[in-house]
Amino acid sequence: MMRRKNGNKHYFTRMGTRKKVLAFVRVKPTDDFAHEMIKYGDDNKSIDIHLKKDIRRGVVNNQQTDWSFKLDGVLHNASQDLVYETVAKNVVSQALDGYNGTIMCYGQTGAGKTYTMTGATENYKHRGILPRALQQVFRMIEERPTHAITVRVSYLEIYNESLFDLLSTLPYVGPSVTPMTIVENPQGVFVKGLSVHLTSQEEDAFSLLFEGEANRIIASHTMNKNSSRSHCIFTIYVEAHSRTLSDGKYITSKINLVDLAGSERLGKSGAIIALGDQKRDHIPFRQCKLTHALKDSLGGNCNMVLLTNIYGEAAQLEETLSSLRFASRMKLVTTEPAINEKYDAERMVKNLEKELALLKQELAIHDSLANRTLVNYDPMDEIQIAEINSQVRRYLEGTLDEIDIINLRQIQEVFNQFRVVLSQQEQEVESALRRKYTLIDKNDFAAISAVQKAGIVDVEGHLVGEPDGQGFGLGVTPFSAKPGKKSKSKKTFREQLSSLARKEGASSPVSGKELDVSMSKTQMTPSSKEGDVKDMIMRERETSSIEPLPSDSPKEELRPPRPSTPPPKPVAFEDFKNERGSEINRIFKENKSILNERRKRASETTQRINAIKREMDVTKEALNFQKSLREKQGEYENKGLMIIDEEEFLLILKLKDLKKQYRAEYQDLRDLRAEIQYCQHLVDQCRHRLLTEFDIWYNESFFIPEDLQMALKPGGNIRPGMVPVSRLMSLGEDDQDKFSQLQHMLLPEGPDSISFYNAKAKTEQKHNYLKTMMGLQQAHRK
Length: 782
Ligand code: ADP
Ligand code: MG
Known about the structure:
By secondary structure, the chain is α+β, with helices and mostly antiparallel strands. It is built from 22 helices and 19 strands. Helix content is about 45%, strand content about 15%.
């Protein structure tokens, strides 16, 4: 089965097996039959010709004198009835199954072509193939009540390469094109302007035939036509729709009954001859009107029968020979008859609608069997959609526990409404933030650098002059501190500490260590500078999820671990940067400066891009203006070429150039952004390292008791803060001992707290050193 697609229609051609052209010979009865020259084979399928040596030429020649022709049947003394049965019956019957068929009578003038094809119109018994074919078609239609079959006919005469409609005298509603032309389209070849008449019964069909025959004769008289020069093509068009299988498929076919001009004049119809030439791969169908009009009916995918009419008399033997040669050549031609199936779109839609209605009924039955109240499967209307939206909202709020599943359409709509609600909420959150804060797009480097210049945020995007980090107004990510994290109940220990300290506003200078460890309300006032550093540090700490220590831990009298008072953190930090942290600080600063440089470049590139974009817009506008001018003047096209003036041309060039620049700059910006992201990451990492190291150093230098330091530091494998409690718990025996001794001595909650810390340590994969440190320190105060 082959499928070809033509526009909206689909044509299906079911390929059959290869068939040969059937070639028959009919010998015109005569009293003067050349018995010595023409011999029929016993099988009635061969004919032998014996030619006596040409005595007139008088000389000995080697001319061939005997021929044997194999055919599909030799009809001699055959009745019209038998001829039809042999030659045409099958072709017609297959036409009703969708196969095109062509029956052609070929032969010299007077050999009986017209007699065979049309027959004696005055004598029913002697009627030819045409009326018999029509009869068969209508009989078969009657025998097929399962199909709605329509029959149409046309009758075309080709005389001296001119087309004549032999049925033009009959009323016909259709396009009348004069002169008629042969048109090829994907559905085949047809003659534009030729009237095609619908016939619903045999009788009408006969009337058409007779009308055509009458016109043929009249025309030959009035126009002084020599009928031997004309080809006549009577075509029966069949279209069959199944009444039972309403799949929208239908078949079409046509039967061409061709009465050719005398073969002695066929020189011009070379294509007919070419058909029989197997070596020829190109058949010049268009060379003459006949073969062009029959292009899709000669060979190819149709059933084809050639009936050669010959004389049985010696005088015509020369022409008989040439006719037989042609017939035997045609016998070799193969065709591939195929069914022409088409799809009736309208019918198919109707069928699908029917099917749909049926399935809906089926669904309704299933629903009632499943005890479901009538479910509606139609597309949802606005009210139903609004209801689903409200369900989704209630579900999200928690006032609706679940959304019942009804059908596929409803499920899809539920998901859809989830999306709707989500995007609405996103918008709401954003506008709420906008009401409260000024939001800056983190990719908008111009805006960021402006804010930086104005001194509202520092280079890292941190707010300047907000010591506790609260009240962030500028959400420039990535900020290491996220304002949203600061909810009262979840304040970290350190935050509570620092805010408490600030609230108290106590003025007595207190050592920095108390800042970290004490809950006392009376102890400290960090200088604003100190606050800055500490805040910076705390922002870092915040990200490491520090658990607040119990705030009601017993207050203990502080025992300074060192005789010397530890310096304030900002001061210590400066020291640290020059000493142990100098290398990391150098890298940090280097990365920062690279980052800043890239940001500056990105900002400049952004500005350039914006400028180019503006210029592009201006140019585009100018170009549109020019274009509209040109169109108004009406000279917008000339032989398919646009005519534009120089100004417009220059504008086009400029726009092209700008686009190029734009793309290049954009590419740069993209690269820069990638670099910035990378650098930002490095800077963040460095800062974290710097502060962590600082804390370790600070604690080691000023807080950890020296005995503990001894235990932890040199040979003890313990590095405060870098070692999770779980590790501390699995130390070597000596260390373990020391450690548990310390715990017993130091832990405020007593031995019970050990298991607590153990459990905690076991469950936490990653542990922050501060926890350990603070636990130890807290305990130390005991
Ligand atoms: P063609 O169309 O090939 O020129 P026709 O069909 O007009 O030849 O035949 C010429 C004449 O011979 C006609 O009068 C026709 O009735 C007669 N004729 C041809 N074949 C037969 C036949 N098989 N039996 C009786 N008459 C025939
Ligand atoms: Mg004739």
